[in-house]
């Protein structure tokens, strides 16, 4: 059977249970709502001294008021209760003694006269006492029969208000006894006190006569006193909080202003000053602070002007010397090339002149590079680069210098390459400066270059086993024109700007360049760079301080040439299939021609 065609107006039943199904509550959903205010309170507590002062004052004041209020309330309640008990004891003893005397001396012989006597006697006990309302309860002691008078009670009381143990004690002993009870029902229970004694009523039957005192007025008095103490405590707490806030603000506000002004001055706003009003200690603090800031501003301005003049002088001199030096260098090259035709003395002079002009050229290039850093025009040209290739290129360049010093350069690098997005020209300059510095101070010992990488950074360390340096020297080794040898007794090297230029190149990469050294042991320079602009350096892949600083480490794996099996000077490439390994990734050798260049060449 086929269903009728739909007209679009039919009522379609909905699954109401699916729509009204309530979602299950999870306590984890409350964590963001609770964490946010707690975090805000924590930040306020850590950042604001006024907040901590006021909160601490209120907290300790609250504790003190609670302790004092509890002590006062307890003392007042005890005193008031004891006073009421003493009054009730005297009053009840007098009333019960009088009633017992009347009832026991009665000579009635019938039920009616006895009942009349009891009613008149107990009526005198009912009503207000000295300060507390009282009622009576008369109940026969269990076991007595042939009674003229039945159980009686005044007000809304019944015989059930008398505790069984008190009734039992009254029935067994002579005397007046009392006990605290609760009057009324469970919802409106009021404190009370029952005082009773045993009496004889004609024809010689024993009864328990009780006076019941309602202590609700005492309870009301105590509650009123507690409310008054609480209200007074709240007012006192508010006053203390306001006083604490006012005093703390008066004391802390100038400190906060000084902190704010200090931060502004530290950020470069040297014209910022504190507001000074009055002649008190705070005003003297503000005056001294402003005077100090003014002195600092003058000194910083003078230093900035002097630094700018120095930088401009260096830049101008460097540029002015460039053109004549190029001419002199060309002439020196001509003379140097023709030295074979000179006598030995003239030929040696030509070599010395050529070498010194080359050194002067390097110094001038370093000064120009420093002036570019100072002018802030140095920029990075990042590209994907293999640090292994840069290290090999540096080793090839430094090998003639290492040959002169009798050192060998050893490389320990991962066979799969170490790729990062860096400026290859600047990184090569950094590594070259570190290697040449190590060769110069290595005292003919091996120079180890180690390359490693982790998830976010790459690192290159250069270690020598030469004269080393102290911890103080490590802190100044990257300063401009700083030399560990004040006598400048070394025979080679650059201008004293190589390591400072390396530090500037490292800062452009947002990397780290660090030094470790120990006299007569050697030194280590570690370069750590982020893999790309998007990465941050959490830790360096290489340690700065060697694990065994006193010993020259033997070659590790195939990356290090073995002593006696390799040339004394130079570097042995990795034996592993480096080319094959590099062919599988996107490593770019900055010294190798690109594919487009190859196509053009073809």
Could you give a short description of this structure?
By secondary structure, the protein is of the alpha+beta class. The chain has helices at residues 16-19, 30-47, 49-104, 111-123, 164-172, 216-266, 281-337, 344-375, 387-405, 424-441, 471-476, 498-508, 578-583, 595-601, and strands spanning 127-128, 133-140, 152-153, 176-183, 190-201, 205-214, 383-386, 409-412, 419-422, 447-453, 457-464, 512-518, 522-530.
Helix content: 40-55%
Low-confidence stretches: 1-20, 557-602
Strand percentage lies at 5-15%
What's the tally of helices?
14
Radius of gyration: 51 Å
Shape: rod-shaped
- SSE sequence, one letter per element: HHHHEEEHEEEHHHEHEEHEEHHEEHH
Main sheet overview = 6 strands, antiparallel
